Amino acid sequence: MSLTDLARGALSGVGSAAAMHFLNRGLSRGAMSTVVPVSAVTAVTAVALSVLGGVLLLGDRPCALARTGFLVTVPALWLYLLAAQRQLPAVAVLLASLHPALPVVLGFVLLRERLTVRRVIGLTGAAVATLVLTLG
Predict the structure, then answer these.
(1) Which pLDDT does position 87 carry in this prediction?
(2) Which of 34, 82, 88, 136 is the most exposed place for a label (fewest CB within 10 A)?
(3) φ, ψ for residue 50 (rounded to 5)?
């Protein structure tokens, strides 16, 4: 892992923290039925721009599987928008918050990544938080 990789990861974390801050701020001041779909559109735009930026600026060449994943992800996010408009937004938000679990599971299953103690603790914490939010 290079210093550039660490810097990019740190910058991504700062961006994610800022996004969550503004999402929560929006939820505290506005109607959830408005804030959630707007934030989802922002997420779709961010995903599209990050992939496009990687291809155009960094010379990334996603393999066929990665391109397929992107083509599946964007419609899935739009379906999430529709779900947020047609059902209780809290349910849609909770289900959408589980999206990081899929790449983690795929990493273990398909890429045979190691399951370290730190990862088990992180996954367990995420599972418990999801359960608490669901029941609470």
Answers:
(1) 64
(2) 136
(3) -70, -40
